[in-house]
Here is the input.
Amino acid sequence: MTPESAYFLKVNVAFILLYAFYRLFFYKDTFFKLRRTILLAFFAVSLFYPLMNIQDWVREQEPMAEVIQMYSAILPETTITPGNVPETNWHDLLLSGTFCLYWGGVIALLLRFLIQLGSILLLARHSEVTLIRNVRVHLLSKPAGPFSFFRLVFLHPDSHSDKEIDEILTHECTHVNQWHSIDVIICELVCTFCWMNPFVWLLKREVRHNLEYLADDTVLESGYDSRSYQYHLLGLAHTNKSAASLSNHFNMLHLKNRISMMNKKRSRSIGRTKYLIFIPVVGALLILSNIDRLARVTDELTESTFADILQPNAILPFPFAGDASPAEKREEYVLSEEEIEVAKRASNQIFTIVEVMPEFPGGQAALLEFLKTNVKYPESAMKDRIEGRVSCSFVVGKDGIVSDAEVIRRASPALNEEALRVINSMPAWSPGKQRGKAVNVRYTVPVTFRLSEEKKKTSVSYAKKQAKRIDTSGRIFTVVQQMPEFPGGHTSLLKYLTTRIKYPIIAQENGIQGRVSCSFVVDTDGSLRNIKVTRGIDPSLDEEAVRVIREMPKWNPGIQNDMAVAVKYTVPVTFRLQ
Here is the structure.
């Protein structure tokens, strides 16, 4: 999703939530001035909260929580390029049509706004101006309902009695003196660009009604008889023929609401405190808006790309992320013995997240190749057909030397020992750096041992032989003794994804690329369910990834203790433009 689309989506979601919030808490009270403030704040918050970025603040904090090691089964990501049969489809046409429809509506409403604005200014220029009750009034040449716009008041005096003119001028001067036309202009512009959201129009209606409540309240506070004023409004119910909806009309529709509000008992002053609820609502919107940014920060600190290959001895390395304190600033001064000891301990500090993570000589691909060629499947494990993942943790020192290797997630003793042997035989790495200085960094490499197709004598027959019963408890596993497998193995899965996925045209045209992660459950019969996007980029790419996964054939189910079980799987798919 492009930044513009994300901003537009967040703005419209905010309008929906804030309108519901308004109807729940503020709709029936009589704090009209406070309601005007809160309604304008709704527009300001909705438009500006998506622009507030707290990821820089997050970067400056101590790591806030340890990232838990990922246990769910993750397949190698598949890179799809535009060369894979990019064909126009109905989905792309629908998106393009929606895009054109939206901007067509914006242009039409913007023209309507300019025409209304021009009609008011043209009417003001050609109408006669006079003073009535010391108020500068533009006289209407034909009978029409009175209205105002900024400092302009329009009235047809011959249509009203002297008492009615007094009430009208008091009403319209309230609009003028309190600059109600600013609220109207803001509502019109927001509705122009968010016209597809019905809640924006509802908020606009509430703003217009509240402005009338304010003016009506001023008339009644000025000493005019409430009943006589209400009859006056009813008498003008069908005289307002002005097309200038930008103006503030003395007589608007929904007179029932206005009369009801005039007769309503005034709200108690203690009720003003409920407006403080708006503060945590704004905080919640800000947090929701920055969830994706916080996720990106986490990705930048912890993410490592998975390989696009998976061989019989499948190796999937990635850094293990945990709490780490930034190296403290050092100043030049004489240290005591105790301070020297503290400094020595600080110099030996082991980080888990640093600005520049350690790197195997030659990069990720070279690490994969090293592990692939050096890890030997233990004969005893092959004989017993033991598979599994061994996670090894080790420290890459300031000099790049690997030390303190240990198994933090075990499989069988033979597999554990082999994984440790290969880790300890690694050459020196490029050390990690924090604030430009080499530091000790703890790294985690998970090593997956998986038997080849020949060893299994086809995965289908192997699964049938091992699955003596079916788990009916409804449990969903993430790691089992024998993981689910696509028919034909991982190579067939990669080929399936490469040939089936089509790079959406709209994503290509907008230059959208990145990784889509989809999770699903391989059921006991091999069928896929609960398919969902756990990390999305753009609706078109997300839907394409889900579509291809949904059309997959049945898998060979996972096996745990000779029992077919449901297993959760995650497939990351990278869309990258050439």
